[in-house]
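Note on ligand handling. Small-molecule inputs were canonicalized before submission; formal charges were left as drawn, and no protonation-state enumeration was performed. Where a ligand contained multiple stereocentres, the stereochemistry in the source SMILES was retained. For adenosine-5'-triphosphate, this procedure yielded the string shown in the input block below.
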Amino acid sequence: MTHQIELSGVNKYYGAYHALRDIDLKIKKGSFVALVGPSGCGKSTLLRSLAGLETISAGDLVIAGERMNNVPPRKRDLAMVFQSYALYPHMTVEQNLTYSLRIRGMKKAETKKAAEEVAATTGLSNLLHRYPRELSGGQRQRVAMSRAIIRNPKAFLFDEPLSNLDAALRVHMRKEIRTLHDRLGATSVYVTHDQIEAMTMADHVVVMRQGVIEQQGAPLDLYDRPVNKFVAGFIGSPAMNFIPALPGPDGRSLILDLGTQQVVTLDRPVPQVSKLIVGLRPEHLRIVPDHDAMLRLPVAVVESTGSTTYITSATVPEISVVVGERQTLSHGQVIGLSFDPRHLHLFDQETEQRIDAERA
Ligand SMILES: Nc1ncnc2c1ncn2[C@@H]1O[C@H](COP(=O)(O)OP(=O)(O)OP(=O)(O)O)[C@@H](O)[C@H]1O
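Structure output:
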């Protein structure tokens, strides 16, 4: 069996509110899947439905080949890791780790051995006798994960586990969770609203909006070929620039509306849709001498972090540009920009769906 978890036609209502709409999702054994989307899109509801903390209203949920729609959470054999670590404060790390084994009647000697084994994997061997209040945020997070690992579940379900941690620790824990996942050969489902977290940790990213899966696939496939304007704007940081445009009369150019009109000529036919949106990622724009420029924009703001310069144009819509080199630019100065036409994305302004030039 290659799929550890399969959802087909899953719908969830909270009263009249339709929180999950026709969800089809297949999660391969051993894969790391991230559910990502803005607040309220339904990602926690989906995760909680897998865990059995919510009952689905329609559709099928199959885990390791068994239909699980009405199976209670403890019989699903999944382990949930929350952002609030939910550790028992009056228990040591070892007692926290072995609690679930003890209530199932496992002998003391065996639970001790199991705790030591897991602690060796997660780097907690020296901390087994401490209480949660004696641990750092990262260590508590590791205890929470170890407590899930010790149960040897069919899959790990993570609900925004890193959102309480500071930025540096979050980056560190990202790597730690991914390394653990690889070492254990586990199946993991990870909820986050942070697209960078999703892109860097997961093999398969599921982008949700208003209870619907908008797109799913390998992280870089979503970046390279977003199916609509929503996914295009959600994946990538800083966000993709969107410019209203009309097809030019020669069939190979676009008339961009940046307050003033600017015409760019492409290497391919432009789809003859009455109104388009052009998508250009900030990192795909280059500053070039005026005679090579495809676009000319006045500069509004220049911010430099040392390694990277962020430029914002004084146009409507604003255009963001990210370059590696340092720039000495002044407010109001006009810069020439160029880009590889392969990096240009086109969307129908009406439907906001991607349009491919080949289909024109
Ligand atoms: N028990 C409930 N009763 C009614 N509506 C609910 C309930 N739980 C969640 N919802 C609604 O369902 C929608 C999806 O909620 P969910 O918690 O899954 O979103 P989310 O994507 O995880 O958001 P966040 O990132 O803010 O946690 C929201 O509009 C929420 O208000």
